[in-house]
Structures are given as C-alpha cells and as structure tokens.
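Q&A FORM
Asked by: J.P.
Topic: structure of Protein kinase domain-containing protein

PROVIDED:
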Amino acid sequence: MEKEKLLGWALLTNISDGDSAAGPALRLNKHTVIDALREVQILLLDASQLDRRYKLKLTLSTDKSTAETGASQVSGEKILRYDYSILQKKALDFISKTRKYPKKLQWASFDKANFEDLLSNLRVLNDDMMGFLEAYERKRHFQMQEATFMQILQVNNRMDGLVELLHSLKDTAAEDAKQAHANNLDQRTYDDRLIRLTRFKAVSIAIETQTTQINEPEARSILDKAVTGAELSLAKLTQISPNDDEEQHQRSHGLYDKTPVWVEWRYYEDMDEDEEPPAFIVQRISKLAKLLRDGMKPAEFLVPACLGYVHQKSHCRFGFVYKSMESLGRDLPISLFELLSTVKKPSLTTRVRIAHAVANSIWYLHATNWLHKGLRSDNITFQDRQQIRNATPFLCGFDYSRPSGVGEETEQPSQNSLHEMYRHPETQFDFPRDGRTGFKKVHDIYSLGVIMFEIGVWMPISEILGIDTTKTIKASMVKKVQSDLLRKDNLDLLESEAGDVFAGAVTVCLDGTLAPSKTLQSDEADSQLQLNFGEHVIKNLERISI
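REPLIED BY: S.T.
REPLY: Here is the structure written out as tokens.
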C-alpha cells in the first residue's frame, strides 16, 4: 500500500515529466522533495536487502490474458488503467506465490522488526509528500489508493488473510492518527472505511461458512456478536399496517417494542399450521438478517438500520425489521419507483447525486463480495418524503439465494414480469433464480444500469419502452429490454436528458463491456471488474459538472 501511495503521488504530480509539468507547490519545494525522495530510496534499498536475504522476488506473470484484458474495449475506447498497473499485477502475483511457499517468510525476529521500522519510516515520508499535493489532487490520491485496496480485498477470501489485513490497516490508522497534516481528517475517514470493509468481508465469510472456531482474539471479538441469532420476537411487533391476508404487501409499518419500525416481507408457499417452511429458506433468511443488522458495516453501503427478522407463520412470511428514521415517523419509506411516477422530474444535479449514491453503494458492496441480486427501483427507498432533493437513497430487497450447485435446494423466482425487466437476460425467468451458471456481479451492474436509465430520464422502465403494465407483459417483451434500451433512439433520449457522460456510464453497465476477459481466474476477474466499474461508472459520475 505504501508503494501505491508513492506511485500515485508521482502520477498526480507529473514528476517524471520535468519541472514544466509539475504543480506550483512541487516547484516551490523542489529541493525538499528531492531530499525526501533520497530518503525513500535509502529505505527501499534497505528493504531490498531483506528481500534478497529471503529470496523474495517479484515475478511478472507470462499469462497472455493480461495482454488480452489490456486491449478490452469499453464504448470504443480502451479500458483505462493507472500507469503503474503492471506493478500492481506483480504485487498480486507475489502475494499469490508467497501463499504457496510460506517457508520463505519465516522472519528472524530482528529482521521482522527492521522491516516494520522501514515501513513505518516510509509511511511517514509518504505522508509528508502528500503536503505537496493540491486539495483536488489529494482527493484523487485517496481515490487511487482506494481502487488499489479494492483489488487487494478482492483476492483475500480467507479468514486468516483478512485478519492479517485488518491488523495492518489498524496499525496504519494508528500511525496516521499521530500525524497532524491538513488532510488528516480525510485520511482518518479513508482509514476507517477500509477497516470497516475488511471487517465486514470477514464477518460475511464467517456467516456464510458458519465459522465459530477461531482462536485469534481480535477475530473472535469481531465475530462473536455478528454470528449470533438474529430472530426477533413476533409478539413485540405490533400495530402492523397494512396487515391483511388477501394481498401480499411488500412492506408494512408498525412498532417493535414501542419503537417505530417498517418491515420488508418475504413470502413462502402456503402450508398447514403444523408445518415449517423449508430449512434452507430459514437458514438464508437468518444469514441475510445477520449481514443487514451488522452495526459496523460501512455507511457507504446505504443499508437501513436492521434490527433482525420475524417469522409470521399465520401469513407464511418472514419480515426484516428496520428502524424508522425520525423524519419518516409512522409512514412507510417511499420507493424510487413511486417517485418516478408521482414526483415532477428533479434537477439534473439531484438525479446525478441519486445515481452516484446508488452506484457507489454497489461498488462498495461488491468489494466485500456481497451481491444484491434484487436491484430495481422499488427496492431503492427514501426515508424523507418531503425533501427528496437532499434525501439519502437506501437499498433494500436484498436476496440471499446462492448460485445453484449439485444437490443444492433452490427457490422459485417471482412471476412478476415487471421485476424481470430489471434482471440481466441470463437470469430472467430461470429456475433457479440465479440463472444457469450462478448470479454474477455483472448481473447486479446490469440492473444498476436499468435503474440509472430510469433516473436519467425520470420515468419507469416500462414507460421508457412503451410497455402497458395494465396488460399481461409477455416474456418475449421482457427478454428484449436490454437490446431496446441500447437502441440509438433511447440512448439519444438519455443523452439529451442527462448528458453524454451520464449516458456513457449507463451504457457500459447495460452492454456488458465492463466484464473482464473470460480467461482470467475468478479472483483476477473480480479485481479487474471492480477497477473497470470504478473507472467508467463511479469516476465518470463524479466528474459530471452542472
């Protein structure tokens, strides 16, 4: 990470392009910068001596897929990479190799201490170098660091590796807290977000694998609360409205232990009173509730505060119980779908803000391998009905169904054609609901593209495509949604309403060109998709100026 900080700094300051390309702060402090870089050189030479002692070599992969990926296209342009992406590839290859040969990392105690001192000194020098960046450059530098970290997080899928990463991040945060730089608040916010992301991924792995036997004290403290039961007492849930038996309402409001709440319902097939729902459904509801109610999950997930879940057997349904915000009172949250149909089109500034918030939340969720699997505009809610212009969108309607495997039980997907319009063609009308080869992140990103299209023109997808929802929607019409949205006349409409940059971000979500080469291994593919999504969706939405 310290190497990436330094490389990012060099890229932003154009230090390799000579004095004329450097910023004013760098030119004024030229000699100070040179002295600092000499100190960095000495530290790196010291570190290289340790590398040689333990024969730790960075070996560039000869996998042809790297070249293929580098030439992949997005909207007619090559996918952008940071100039130091080759070094990132080396670092990831190095991590992979050292996992296979752990004996090479059996440090003598004094060499480990020396190495940690070198890293500490390098961190201080790196932080000092940040003072030569302008404010906008510091913001971009944090974004570059975060993109790099996302790739590191993607390839860490073992509990022990995540715990080690968490220790490292906390040590770094402690060092950063001692510094008194002008950007210290931004640094602490950044450090806290990385810690929360890493912790949450560890929690999600523990919940999914039902891991309980962990001896490491810090990991144990993280998981103890997260993996405990999440079922609430139905008797404490009162004044539920609406609560009739004739219609399967998606959401209700009420009180839980006298606290205002709203409930999101999940129904299962009717059965006799003495029968229980299938065990695999109960297990999935329980696992999802544990993730939703985790109090330490990153705020950027935009998930409302969940208390747990209830089971109402009389209505054959489970309910995720969310705490209502004060601004909501006893009302239900209003969905984006409802806003698109009832509220006058807001300013482009507001529409871009909403689209960016939702896209950003998916970017962070995917970094921890949490897929939504149910993205559509009626699953994006606002808890302030009066101030939509400044209200925060929240994601709900999460699905916890897993990719189907041999012997795995599956759930019948809903037969709502309107919902299917938001789903990727590979997952529409399929049994199991995750499609033939399992639900993938690109499927979430596709659904996000449909939602962003709706936000851009401010109308529901059915209205955009001229589909009459009062009549039966044929499956053939639903299967054409992707190709219809990508028609030139519809893209021209989106561009005229929201601009070419916004339209470009939507297009790459819908047409699948963000997806990496199929020749890459799973971890590498996830890492590359995360980078592509950040570069061509998140970053482009951020640079829209109105």
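FOLLOW-UP: Residues 51 and 225 are 40 Å apart (CA to CA).
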